[in-house]
Amino acid sequence: MNIAIIGSGNVGGALAQQWIKAGHHVLIGAQFPLSEKNISLATKIGEDRFAVIENAVKQCEVILIATPPEAILEILEKLGDVTGKTIIDATNAIMKTPEPYKTVYHALADKTNAEIVKCFNTTGFENMLNPLYQGEGIDMFMAGDSDKAKGVAKKLALDCGFGSCIDFGKSDKVELLEKFALSWINLAIMQGMGRNLAFKVLHR
């Protein structure tokens, strides 16, 4: 796949590295492609993988949003026509919401004609870089109305090494999925259990 990652922080950087390893073509879309933070990531994935947001999106059929949620309204102005493209919302509007929307997913659903899915938001970037615990892949989760976008998200989750990508439900479960992310944050950080902690659904 040709994937544009908007946001070059920990999550965007981790997924970029994993998807490049899996053989996908990845571009990092950034407002300032040669910023100090991006240069640090460029040493791992190559300087040729950075472009301004508009150019990155134009060249790719899959777009991952991994920015602070309040940045989405500015980003939307730079996406251009994304009709039919898949957009993966990996953000969490826990501390700040992208007013007037509850989540980035809702902003994307209202402002674009893209196929949208919420995914890659429920665990820390360390688990994206290495999703194996005792040799077994942990679970990723997704939510949204687009079956096409869910298919893309599932494939990309498995390509990262996750054991499965569990469907949390349609768009009415997007906010619940963000609260599930808060559960990980609560245990890992607020309760001091550490970031090497993950979720896996077990069946009897």
From TrEMBL:
SUPFAM superfamilies listed in its UniProt record: NAD(P)-binding Rossmann-fold domains
All copies of domain Pyrroline-5-carboxylate reductase catalytic N-terminal, residue ranges: 3-92
Keyword annotations of the record: Oxidoreductase
Pfam families according to UniProt: F420_oxidored
Designated name of the protein: NAD(P)-binding domain-containing protein
Organism per entry: Chryseobacterium salviniae
